[in-house]
Amino acid sequence: MILEDTWLGDKWVKTIKMILYVPYVNIVDNRILNNSVIFISETKVVAFDVRLTKQVKNLAKNERVVFGTVDLNEGKGYNSSTGIFIAPSDGTYVFDWTTMTYQRAYSHTSLVVNGDFKSWNHCNDGLTKTYVTCSKMAVVKLKQGDKVWIGVFLGPAGLYEQYTSFSGYKL
Fold first, then answer.
1. Mapping DSSP to helix (H, G, I), strand (E, B) and coil, where does residue 162 land?
2. Nearest CA to 56 among 44, 68, 46?
């Protein structure tokens, strides 16, 4: 397996190139020729890792969390203006998000796929004077063009700066 940059007409993308070497039998004289290339396949790398740029308070029910700081965006699926990841191809994807609540605050967030809540994260610090972090991971099957984001399923939500993050990748 080789990880390399490949030019696709108008942009560079990370690809994984798999080359399979197998013995090949010469039909004419039955000689075995080793290390003959018989299959080449390329897979685009899809992965992103983003976090909040600044604190967010009082997000209402059904609001989307927009993560403005992009640390990784291979495949260019995540849009930092909208907070939406768009699947570039069919497949199984893994998503993870972590929230940090303010003191005496709540954050009830969910992984949202095409407007439907799929996985929930309940982070509650309603009584103490501490910051609470909560994490959740979800594995979902997506079609090309499906939209995924982190939304609030019960508001208001208060999220603390760079300690709140969202990441995903294609298996």
1. helix
2. 68
Give the tokens for residue 110: 């969910």
Parallel/antiparallel/unpaired status of strands 91-101 and 165-170: antiparallel
- From residue 87, how far is each of 30, 67, 72, 84, 95 by CA, in Å? 47, 17, 15, 10, 12
DSSP letter, residue 64: B
Backbone angles phi, psi at 163, to 5 degrees: -80, -5
Chain Cα centroid distance, residue 149: 9
pLDDT tens-digit series, residues 85-141: 999 999 999 999 999 988 778 889 999 999 999 999 988 877 777 888 999 999 999
Give the rounded distance of the alpha carbon of 64 from its chain centre.
16
The DSSP 8-state label assigned to residue 102 in this structure reads P
